[in-house]
Amino acid sequence: MTVGRFFLLLLILGAGFVYAVWRGHVDVPGKWNPWAPLDLREAPNLLTPFKLERLQHSRVLCEQALASSALDYVALPDSTPQAGCPVENAVRIRGSAVSFNAPFMATCPLAAAYALFERHGLQPAAEQVFGQPVVRIDHFGSFACRNIARSNRRSQHASANALDLAGFRLADGTRITVARDWAGDGDKSRFLRQVKAAACDAFRITLSPEYNAAHHDHFHVDMGGFGLCR
Predict the structure, then answer these.
(1) Under a CB-based contact definition with an 8 Å cutoff, are residues 92 and 110 in contact?
(2) Which residue in 69, 125, 137 sits closest to 99, CA to CA?
(3) CB–CB of 165/139 below 8 Å?
(4) What is the pLDDT of residues 166-177, one digit of tens each?
């Protein structure tokens, strides 16, 4: 058998296996089944971005995914809070395993990515560095009907598909803020850099103080674009 025919055979077998999984003829664990509901309790893997993308246009899949999280949320009807800025398939997040300085609106993929970030990135970083969990997150909001600075393109904030994370409070009351603690080499700075790395894994876009001066006091995270970690 030639090399070309061998790879063609592998391609056919692979396609047949994928079809069998899709039709339910082959049983594989949900985390490795592209069409199984996203379980936010499971550690992210190569299929997670695909599953997050599927949530964008399906409220059913959204509900299935968020039901596996610790989020306290309420589903929102599609609406246009401000002219020119429609919001679809969104929820209002009121809390989770942590509290927030204020509830915030988020598209379903953003809400799911946040749940992954909190469970699999933020809390492990806090436990590793400080030996205790984060109990509160301060943010600068999610929805804002505006363009990207110095651009004619709409910001992801304009569709509630972005969130600005500004600070964290630990169980013992310790406060950590991006504005004050990003620079340096102490535990707070080390923690924030681990949080940024975790955000890059969970969200499509993560912008930190390393990106530009406009982000000196927060991490901007969103689910738009093709991926950027700065």
Answers:
(1) no
(2) 137
(3) yes
(4) 999 999 999 999
